[in-house]
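Appendix B, example 12.
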Amino acid sequence: MTVLVTGATGFVGSAVVRKLLAAGEAVRVLARSNSNRQNIDGLDVQLSIGDLTAPETLAPAVKECSAVFHVAADYRLWTRHPDEMMHTNIEGSKALIVAAMDAGVERIVYTSSVAALGINKDGTPTDETTPSSLDDMIGVYKRSKFLAEEAVHDLVAQKKAPVVIVNPSAPVGPRDIKPTRTGELIADAAAGRMPAFVDTGLNVVHVDDVAEGHLLAWRKGKIGERYILGGENLPLAEILREISELVGRKPPRISIPHNVVMPIAYIAEALTRLSGGEKPLVAVDEVRMARKKMYFTSEKAQRELGYYPRPVREAFADAVLWFREHGYLE
């Protein structure tokens, strides 16, 4: 039987496709007609043209599939059109899951995010049971992922949707073509474009380990359960030091207070709106999120799925190598 992957042209989705192909699965991908397919060029996959915002395109995509990996999402920390992001991430996910159920799909892996989880006030790592509410969610992306995951839980409870949820942290590694915000940070640090930083912390993981975690959730995960797919918790200063060592640079040593960066973010957003730019240099929500260290634990995934990510330094090395080979460090 065939396995469908949404978001297959993206960073995490293309890694999931590669893991499935390596496991001998027949893979179909859902992609928009105008999508950049660089990440899946040359791969032996079926192509189904469609869009999460066009429900009529989803039934052909899920037809005769045994499993669906719903990795696609609108991921931006700033957008001119928040309603579009909310609609794609919430209503698009619901429509896909319903279409998959109607087609008799046996198992669905839904890619949520640690963005949908709560953050412990004492700085200790969050797990799947840490309380959270919509009021805790900073910015439209986090709100959309929180509400989307709630909608998925409702479909599991009310419609018996065969969904397992995974919550990746901050993936890094090859094929980050856009790149993600974490990828931008790594590329800028490696290229010497980051003279200063703010005090924050992230959980960083190799994108290929996140992809492997998706397959483990498919095979071993419990319906309705969520599993954090993370790696190591590191202060941003340590991340920058690791990247700098890899490329033989001195790490940035100037830490800028959040209250100094915030006015710059407001100005950057205003200039972006006036100029018609795609995104600001730094977003207000990004600064607000940076006030909290986003640390997580993957103990549940290790215990129940057998998920064991590699040392994060390997992820940094693979990311830097890919960015260098593809001209991101110039």
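The first helix runs from residue 11 to 22. The CA atoms of residues 142 and 155 lie 20 Å apart.
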